[in-house]
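thread: overnight batch results

M.L. [08:02]
morning all. the overnight job finished for the chain we discussed friday. pasting input first so we're all looking at the same thing
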Amino acid sequence: MNTTLTPRRVPAALAAAALAVSLGALAPQASADEGGSPFGPGCASVPKEGEGSLSGMADDPVATAASNNPALSTLVTAVEKAGLVDTLNNAKDITVFAPTNEAFAKIPKADLDKVLADKEMLTKILTYHVVDQPVDKADLADGSFKTLQGGTLTTAGSGDAYKVNDSAAIVCGDVHTSNATVHVIDTVLMPK
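M.L. [08:03]
and the structure it wrote out:
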């Protein structure tokens, strides 16, 4: 199996629109019967058609779907460096809390470069963003979820406003890929 991600070409207009929801492409897939519709202020910027659209992302496994979204390029780079492409693409019914490029940009460059160069630390951080079960909007109001890293994430909120660990806002939630549900977040989560 090819373990590299080959980004598909997305027209410039779609790329700009996708920027606001960069991590949405990493979401696990749920059928219309299993999960709700995407929600949050960032969802309005998702293209209506093409590979970066909600229906386009639903066709691919989570890591591949993320590679179609330029707003998730930092996350895609991190997943590749950690060697997690196959792990994420082959998993079933997972949930990914996907930080946008802007979320990664909040980390000082020297610190981010250090983490990207440390595969063990990078893997811990990335797997802290993944839950081994479907988590949709209905589960977010007052949730506690064990991550693949072994830690726990908490969620709270109502309506279309939810936070993860009291620090990261979900900007576009309930985005589905063929194998995952994705909640795009505005801050990188750090395991304790």
